[in-house]
Amino acid sequence: MSEPCRYEREVLRATEEDRWTDALRAHVAGCEDCSAAMSVAPWIDRFAKIETRDRPLPDPAVVWLKAHVLRGSVAVERVARPMRAFHYVAYFFVAAGWATLLTWKWSSLQQWLLTFSPAHALQNAANGANLSVTFFLAIFLLSSMTITLALHTILAEE
Amino acid sequence: MSMALTLPAQFIAGTTTRRGAPQKPMNEAQFEAFYRKTAGSLWSYLYRLVGNASTADDLLQKTFFRYLRSNPALAGEEHMRRYLFRTATNLALDHFRESKREKEKSVVQAAAESVVDERHALRHDMMRMFGELKPRERALLWLAHVEEADHDEIGEALGLKSKSVRVLLFRARKKLGDVLRKHGMAPEAAR
Q: Which of A102, B65, B124, B183 is the 20 to 30 Å CA partner of B20?
């Protein structure tokens, strides 16, 4: 079984039109491909002719419109991809910044937070906190970046 | 019954332009004419594959979405025909893969459709019998017998070598013969 039988189309046509020649009949008797094709052809022909649609096909104008809307959304998706990648990188750096800062200055931060209790406020009023200006500057920077990133994400989604 | 496309030249912008002239993409009117010419037979094919009218509608639309995305201005008549059937076949097979209950689903869905009158009963019975074949066997038989596609075209639509098409088509015919026999409908013998 390598090449298709060259009489197959003729056999199918003869089956459909019920017009057989002796030569074709003799061929079918000796060709298992054509014999198999002929055996199911009338049934498939009837099956193909039965009405299967109870409603009209989707409107071509709607299909055209949907295809263009989809094409637009694919284009938007493509354009938005680098922006999304930038967001992920920014999330990572801001999260890493917060984690580093809090880990590095955790004990100092705890002490500083305790100074807000009334007892410590009186006791340490004169001493002041042992956190540097750099720390507060870093806090300010990271907070600004976090807020900017959050706003950017919300606006981008909108 | 054949759906071999003989599209007017106006539908094939890419093949009718002067040498060196820029190719225009298909416009809405051209698409509509092309759609009206091909969608019916494509829907019939999809319906016989999936056994459900709504799914066939969805897959038909997806097929044309992909077709429009593929820049049809560059395509020739034969290419467009093959592209549509190949895409439709892939989408139908993907649909079966996603559901993972291909046989049950198609047969059950076909059975679930209303059996109101004799015409519906006949359709229901035939769909049920056809549903006993695997999706690829259904596609092979439909393309060979109804669309009158040659083995190369069938191979391209189903992602098979044309040599394999002959063997698989023979098996599909035998299997359908067995199904018909099982349901008391003896296949035709050589006259």
A: B65
- What pLDDT score was predicted for residue B83? 87
Looking at the predicted complex, does its ipTM rise above 0.95? no
Q: Is the pLDDT of residue B73 over 80?
A: no
Q: Do A51 and B119 touch (CB under 8 A)?
A: yes
Say if residue A13's pLDDT is above 50: yes
Residues in B closer than 8 angstroms to A29, CB to CB, are 190
Give the pLDDT confidence score for residue B113 in this predicted structure: 54
Of B53, B150, B173, the CB nearest to A39: B173
Biggest CA pair distance of chain B? 62
Report how far residue B69's alpha carbon sits from residue B26's, in angstroms, rounded to the nearest whole number.
11
Q: What HEC string does B6-70 produce?
A: CCCHHHCHHHHCCCCCCCCCCCHHHHHHHHHHHHHHHHHHHHHHHCCHHHHHHHHHHHHHHHHHC
Alpha helices in A105-132 (DSSP H): 106-114, 118-123
Residue A132 structure tokens: 């540097």
Structure tokens at A96: 């890493």
